[in-house]
Amino acid sequence: MKKSFVFIISLLLFLQMNLSSALAANNPRNIYEVRSGDYLWKIAQTYETSVADLKLFNGLQSDLIFVGQKLRVPISYEVVPGDTLWQLSQSFTSTVPLIKSANGLTSNMIYVGQKLKIPPKKLTMDGKFILMTRDEFKDWIFNQKFTRKVGKVQQHHTYQPNYQSFNGSNHFSLMKGMEDYHINGMNWSMISQQITTFPDGKLVVGRPFDIAPEGSFGLQNKSAMHAIEVDALAIENVGNFDANQMTAEQRETIVTVTALLMIKYGLTPNIDSITYHHWWDINSGERVLDHSEGHPVKTCPGTQFFGGNSTTAAKNNFYPLVAKKMQEILASM
After folding, report:
1. Regarding predicted confidence, which is higher, 226 or 234?
2. Which runs of consecutive H residues, i.e. helices, occur in 47-113?
3. Residue 161, preceding bond cis, omega within 30 degrees?
4. What whole-number distance in Å separates Cα of residue 203 and Cα of residue 135?
5. d(CA 53, CA 248)
6. What share of the chain is helix, strand, coil (3-state, %, to 5)?
7. Beta bridge partners of 124
8. CA-based torsion, 284, 290, 296, 301: positive or negative
9. Given the DSSP bridges, would you call strands 232-237 and 152-157 parallel, antiparallel or unpaired?
């Protein structure tokens, strides 16, 4: 009887430790993997945060989450020898000011054994639009779980807005302007493209990845357009690359984002997986590639887009950069 009592007490203590471990144990990645039966409110309660903050930590465009999806969460961390606030901020995708604010710290001094609450930094969002750096997008896309199959990435340029429209901080207002045109001018349900890249190297996720783009090809033939777009993901690159010289930052972002998408969806860079708007008849939806004589086509993504908008230019100047970046990313992981 005494042995049974000791066993029960030990079991209760073990369970209590496990229930609190999410907040108490040093977790090297502060990531929670969604399980069956989870929903945002339940996860928020477990990690002593709010649904609104969970969505900002993770760039969630809705309350919908999927089993296997990875969410960044606040944790409680016990300081070990060698720790500094800066190191902890880097390890847990946070910032020094965030950690100091969460713990009421007035200096950068911390001591061994001290327990710190470490919240992840919040992404910059406006409604469904998520503004990110390349590094933030890399973290975001590998933590997301998507259900739609993607077989090709479309490259476009915007023409309008162009470089003259961008003032360095008006990412969201330009996105809203494009969405307004898509809804009220084109009668589409929302903004067409999933990703928009900007001259400063930042990008905005707009249309959810699990919803196919709308109206990006075959504008006069809706059935052909939908057939093309069903497995597509659209990137709009702000700029008129028949006239604008692409900035180095935007160039790096276009290569990096395309490489990340190739990895995420298990694709290899070629004319089938990375396609230019210029290669399609905008009325019929026929893919004409470099044989556009007699077909209405656009120059998009531009005659100066990585050396031009032909398949030869893509094979010589763009695909090799994407493939190299894929190797770099995979090596770093």
Report:
1. 234
2. 51-58, 85-91, 96-103
3. yes
4. 11
5. 33
6. 40, 15, 45
7. 131
8. positive
9. parallel
Which amino acid type is present at position 259? A
CB-facing half-sphere around the CA of 81: CA atoms within 13 A: 0
Strand partners, 196: 204, 236
Terminal-residue alpha carbon distance, the chain:
53
Radius of gyration of the chain (CA): 24
For residue 297, which of 315, 276, 318 has the smallest C-alpha distance?
A: 276
| HSE value, Cβ hemisphere, 13 Å, CA-based, for 86 | 0
Q: Is 117 helix (H, G, I), strand (E, B) or coil?
A: strand
Residue 300, both tokens: 């998009």
Structure tokens at 158: 């915007």
Diameter over CA atoms, the chain: 92
Predicted structure pTM score: 0.89
Which residues, 6+ apart, have CB-to-CB distance to 80 below 8 Å?
26, 112
Q: How far is it, in rounded angstroms, from Cα 328 to Cα 333?
A: 9
pLDDT tens digits, 162-190: 999 999 999 999 999 999 999 999 999 99
Phi and psi at 156, nearest 5°, equal: -130, 160
Backbone phi, then psi, for 134, in 5-degree steps?
A: -60, -45
Amino acid at position 267, single letter? L
Contact call for residues 69 and 144 (beta carbons, < 8 A): yes
